[in-house]
Amino acid sequence: MSYKSRKKKKSFLSQMKYRFGLAKIALYKKFKKKERGNDMRLRQTNEVMNFLRNQARIIRPNNLRINEWVDDYVNRCVLNGSPVEILTQVCISKSLEMRYKKQGDVFIPTKKERLLFLEDIPRVKRIFQENGIACNWWMTFNPSYLDSGRTTSEICNAYVEMLRQLGEPLIREGWFMLTDWEADILGSRPAPNPEVLADINRFVKPEALQLEIQRQSTWMKEQIGLEQADEAVRRDVYLQIACEAEEGRYLMNDAPFGEYILMPLETAERYDFFTILAPGFKDRIVAILPAHPWRLGE
Q1: Beta bridge partners of residue 88, listed in sequence order
Q2: What is the 3-state secondary structure (H, E, C) of 106-128?
Q3: Could you count the other beta carbons within 10 Å of the beta carbon of residue 14?
Q4: Which of 51, 55, 131, 139 is the most buried (most CB within 10 A)?
Q5: Separation between Cα atoms, residue 47 and residue 51, nearest integer Å
Q6: Per-residue exposure over 41-56, b if at least 16 CB sit within 10 Å of its own CB, e if not
Q7: In 10 A of CB 278, how many CB atoms?
Q8: Contact predicate 261/85, CB 8 Å
Q9: How far apart are CA 90 and CA 102, in angstroms?
Q10: Long-range contacts, stretch 36-45, CB < 8 angstroms, 24+ apart
């Protein structure tokens, strides 16, 4: 190998070592920054967050990672001596009518529903309590935004009463509340955000719209037994997305319980459209509860 070739090779290796060195420094700084961030959080916060992250890994593969917003929120609550607010929403839709008939015109709790109140929720409450952190848990029952998805008041009341009986021991303790989203929180039926509804294509990509239309059509057929015309499905999807966008905005700005952690009973992806007007909305999701406990056979 000539002197010129050896020099060129040595120069290339030097550049690679230099770049590798820069990468190591950057990673070290990032790690130390995160380490300092964890050190600044209280021991109680780290204990709780380690538990929550472990539960998130267990509950389902490819689960949404818990954002550090949650760490900071829990830490603020500890420092201020205020309770952590937790929100869980229960979907009350027309699909419950099929379950009601299958169970003999009555609601018999599913295994997931029983375990939700006997084990899942108390387990989370216990880890907060063991670390000296109070919490308020709001469980709201949320009727469908859509006329086509809303069930009768008889079905709604029967299902909510079943939930109330399951949750009664927790309600008596004073930290768990079962509330009507429309009557107790909003004071009215949810309304779509007019700006989003008027120009849906400005806020949602065409492929995302198409996927949601397909999902809605499939859900109506399988869960309700209703087959709608394509145009009716499209109108429903546009209205639902505009309602979800408005609810996301409301929950980020006007919710009466202030800041909170969202522990959903659906997969985190169902909250994608909540971020249209509230980009940081999904940062507060802690998906550690079983999905769709109201469905039979799951």
Answers
A1: 139
A2: CCCCCHHHHHHHHHHHHHHHHHH
A3: 10
A4: 139
A5: 6
A6: beebbbebbebbbebb
A7: 19
A8: yes
A9: 20
A10: 37/68, 41/71, 41/72, 41/75, 42/75, 42/78, 42/79, 43/131, 44/78, 44/131, 44/132, 44/133, 45/71, 45/74, 45/75, 45/78
Query: Is 162 within 8 Å of 105 (Cβ atoms)?
Result: no
Please enumerate in sequence order all residues whose Cβ is within 8 A of that of 144, keeping only pairs 6 or more positions apart, or say none: 91, 92, 93, 94, 150, 151
Tell me the Cα Rg of the chain.
24
The helix (run of H) or strand (run of E) holding residue 275 is none
Burial (0-12, 13-18, 19+ Cβ within 10 Å), 146 = middle
Please check whether residue 53 is in contact with residue 66, taking contact to mean a CB–CB distance below 8 angstroms: yes
Which tens digits make up the pLDDT trace of 14-41? 665 555 555 555 544 444 444 444 558 9
Report the distance separating Cα 270 and Cα 109, nearest Å. Answer: 24
The token duo for 290 is 């079983």
Structure tokens at 131: 């670390």
Cα–Cα dist 153/158, whole Å = 8
Residues 84-111: tens digit of each pLDDT: 999 999 999 999 999 999 999 999 999 9
